[in-house]
């Protein structure tokens, strides 16, 4: 029994309990589900060795949950969950993925219309039957249809955050096997796209048969789509596909160029090649002018070993993989005008960090210590404020206490001696009318203030834009946090006029956030617009846990995809330089 399966079971049970308004338990089941999902030891092994008591050593697992895990491991079932499933055989997990649908609504949908799954729901909503349920109405029905559409569009895509480390590990293991000379993850992953359809790994090897066997052994999979000496493709047990292709060493560069994509970039490049008298394909760059017959029909193979040589012979700069989306990079490369992108690892500080003062998991000190270990020299503590009650948002009194605590931490020798600095900040809420939920007088005392929308997402575009613009006009708001409110694979952006927001950012000197967590907000295309307008960016991890600093890399990736240079990003500066860029209060 895999941990992932157990984790799923507890998430499902949590949803059913929430549906029945049972207090506390749903949250603790959810926490157990999260812990099981990231647990490195198998719960089943722990149980076999140490019994139910051993299970209680898992974070978030107490006596009650340990007994339930044991029940599942012994009988393959949890009685309580089976009863719920019998009483209400709905796909509650999928249904609650629809934005705006909670467990209680699933109960209503089942009670009134016997809706079991997404398909039933879509059908009923299209027929206008959902609007008829008391408390639903036509507007909610419309929102539900929108939510289903969004889910469908995200289907089969995975977060870069999750997939990237897996793909890197596979490439490393392949190389370590000694069976391959090169192993490089290509495709959207190499371009660092925010979501990934599948993993494409290119290898060069003299022993393709053995390398493919090794690959099949390495990737835990539930299905083999195809196995051959040049391509093998599987569906991993985690649900995504992994392809591996063997390409000859002497054309590795051409193949890497081709399989890195994007398709649109390739088409653009191939057209350019043709204009210059070449033929470009995954098998190499060929001169149309003849020569000895290698590969493509009487044409001469001219460049292929490295990707660099392909671009060089075409006479253009080599665009970094993040730029290869046919957004003008080939034209810029022709003119030698590609930007020098912000390098990975170049952030000196993190500008959005939550702690156990609100919904973060670790203390201010723990977050400071960890970020310092990871090479940062400052972080801004930006816990939520008053209006976000469910996170225990801080009011003025608690914020003042936190500021004193930060002074205490900064004065400790471990931080003072290395000039590490914890900045005082907050993530204040932008209310419906654009006002903020913390008094100006206190905001003026903070080092850095981020403001964001966390409620009333469904406003007209005009009203939402006005609301945000008003907040940006505050002399205290330094950064607009997650400007569009989207959530990858979960929630669409609210409606707001990005052009107007960028203009206002430029006018007021407000920075725009590049939130590197699952929000990825701003997205690459908007980052590009902000960069072009000369607006400052703030890349941050939105950490709620000390392991979250790893997200920063993916924020940098999106900034690179938005053509940002180091100078466009405030927190590539040291703390003094950074503070100097903020609004003068
Ligand atoms: P994904 O997996 O949906 O996130 O996106 P990609 O970009 O990884 O796409 P994928 O896995 O279908 O193919 C990998 C690369 O192979 C793609 O980026 C470019 C290249 N490629 C695939 N199909 C075509 C094609 O029809 N024409 C050209 N020129 N290139 C292609
Ligand atoms: Ca792919
Ligand atoms: Ca693929
Ligand atoms: Zn937020």
From TrEMBL:
GO biological process: DNA repair
Keyword vocabulary terms for this entry: DNA damage, DNA repair, DNA replication, DNA synthesis, DNA-directed DNA polymerase, Methylation, Nucleotidyltransferase, Sodium, Transferase, Ubl conjugation
Domain Polymerase/histidinol phosphatase N-terminal intervals: 349-432
Protein name from the UniProt record: DNA polymerase beta
InterPro entries hit by this protein: DNA-dir_DNA_pol_X, DNA_pol_lamdba_lyase_dom_sf, DNA_Pol_thumb_sf, DNA_pol_X_beta-like, HHH_MUS81, Hlx-hairpin-Hlx_DNA-bd_motif, NT_sf, PHP_dom
Keyword Ribonucleoprotein assigned: no
GO cellular component, one term: cytosol
Pfam families: DNA_pol_B_thumb, HHH_5, HHH_8, PHP
Protein function: Repair polymerase that plays a key role in base-excision repair. During this process, the damaged base is excised by specific DNA glycosylases, the DNA backbone is nicked at the abasic site by an apurinic/apyrimidic (AP) endonuclease, and POLB removes 5'-deoxyribose-phosphate from the preincised AP site acting as a 5'-deoxyribose-phosphate lyase (5'-dRP lyase); through its DNA polymerase activity, it adds one nucleotide to the 3' end of the arising single-nucleotide gap.
Cofactor names: Mg(2+)
Organism listed in the record: Candidatus Wildermuthbacteria bacterium RIFCSPHIGHO2_01_FULL_49_22b
Domain DNA-directed DNA polymerase X: 1-325
Record's subcellular location: Cytoplasm
Molecular function in Gene Ontology: class I DNA-(apurinic or apyrimidinic site) endonuclease activity; DNA binding; DNA-directed DNA polymerase activity; phosphoric ester hydrolase activity; zinc ion binding
Catalytic reactions on record: a 5'-end 2'-deoxyribose-2'-deoxyribonucleotide-DNA = (2E,4S)-4-hydroxypenten-2-al-5-phosphate + a 5'-end 5'-phospho-2'-deoxyribonucleoside-DNA + H(+); DNA(n) + a 2'-deoxyribonucleoside 5'-triphosphate = DNA(n+1) + diphosphate; 2'-deoxyribonucleotide-(2'-deoxyribose 5'-phosphate)-2'-deoxyribonucleotide-DNA = a 3'-end 2'-deoxyribonucleotide-(2,3-dehydro-2,3-deoxyribose 5'-phosphate)-DNA + a 5'-end 5'-phospho-2'-deoxyribonucleoside-DNA + H(+)
């Amino acid at each position: 029994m895999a941990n992932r399966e157990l984790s799923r079971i507890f998430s499902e049970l949590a949803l059913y309990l929430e549906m029945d308004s049972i207090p506390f338990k749903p949250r603790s089941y959810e926490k157990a589900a999260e812990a099981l999902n990231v647990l490195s030891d198998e719960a089943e092994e722990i149980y076999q060795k140490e019994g139910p008591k051993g299970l209680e050593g898992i974070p978030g697992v107490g006596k009650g949950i340990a007994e339930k895990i044991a029940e599942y491991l012994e009988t393959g079932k949890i009685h309580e969950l089976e009863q719920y499933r019998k009483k209400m055989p709905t796909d509650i997990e999928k249904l609650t993925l629809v934005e705006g649908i909670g467990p209680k609504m699933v109960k209503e949908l089942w009670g009134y219309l016997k809706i079991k799954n997404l398909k039933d729901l879509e059908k009923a909503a299209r027929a206008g039957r959902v609007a008829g349920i008391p408390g639903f109405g036509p507007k909610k029905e419309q929102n539900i249809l929108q939510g289903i559409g969004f889910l469908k569009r995200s289907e089969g895509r995975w977060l870069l955050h999750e997939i990237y480390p897996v793909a890197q590990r596979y490439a490393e293991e392949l190389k370590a096997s000694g069976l391959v000379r090169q192993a490089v993850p290509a495709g959207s992953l190499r371009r660092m796209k925010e979501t990934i359809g599948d993993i494409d790994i290119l290898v060069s090897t003299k022993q393709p048969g053995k390398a493919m066997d090794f690959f099949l052994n390495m990737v835990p999979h539930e299905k083999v789509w195809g196995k051959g000496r040049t391509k093998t493709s599987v569906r991993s047990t985690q649900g995504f596909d992994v392809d591996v292709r063997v390409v000859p060493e002497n054309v590795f560069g051409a193949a890497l160029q081709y399989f890195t994509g994007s398709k649109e970039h390739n088409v653009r490049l191939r057209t350019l090649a043709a204009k210059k008298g070449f033929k470009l394909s995954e098998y190499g760059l060929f001169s149309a002018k003849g020569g000895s017959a290698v590969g493509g029909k009487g044409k001469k193979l001219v460049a292929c070993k490295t990707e660099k040589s392909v671009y060089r012979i075409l006479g253009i700069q080599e665009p970094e993989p993040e730029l290869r989306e046919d957004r003008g990079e080939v034209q810029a490369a022709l003119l030698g005008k590609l930007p020098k992108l912000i390098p990975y690892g170049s952030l000196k500080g993190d500008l959005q960090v939550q702690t156990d003062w609100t919904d973060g998991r670790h203390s201010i000190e723990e977050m400071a210590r960890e970020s310092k270990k990871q090479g940062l020299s400052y972080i801004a503590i930006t816990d939520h404020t008053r209006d976000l009650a469910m996170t225990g948002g801080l009011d003025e009194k608690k914020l003042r206490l936190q500021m004193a605590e930060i002074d205490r931490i900064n004065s400790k020798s471990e931080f003072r001696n290395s000039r590490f600095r914890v900045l005082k900040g907050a993530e204040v809420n932008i209310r419906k009318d654009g006002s903020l939920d913390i008094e100006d007088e206190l905001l003026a005392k903070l080092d850095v203030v981020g403001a964001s929308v966390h409620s009333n997402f469904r406003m007209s575009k005009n009203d939402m834009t006005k609301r945000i613009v008003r907040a940006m006009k505050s002399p205290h708001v330094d950064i607009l946090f997650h400007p569009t409110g989207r959530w990858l694979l979960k929630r669409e952006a609210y409606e707001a006029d990005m052009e107007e927001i960028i203009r206002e950012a430029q006018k007021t000197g407000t920075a725009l956030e590049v939130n590197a967590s699952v929000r990825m907000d701003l997205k690459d295309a908007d980052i590009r617009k902000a960069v072009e307008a000369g607006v400052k960016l703030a890349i941050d991890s939105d950490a709620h846990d000390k392991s979250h600093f790893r997200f920063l890399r993916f924020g940098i990736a999106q900034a690179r995809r938005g053509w940002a240079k180091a100078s466009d990003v405030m927190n590539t500066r040291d703390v003094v330089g950074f503070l100097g860029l903020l609004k003068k209060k």
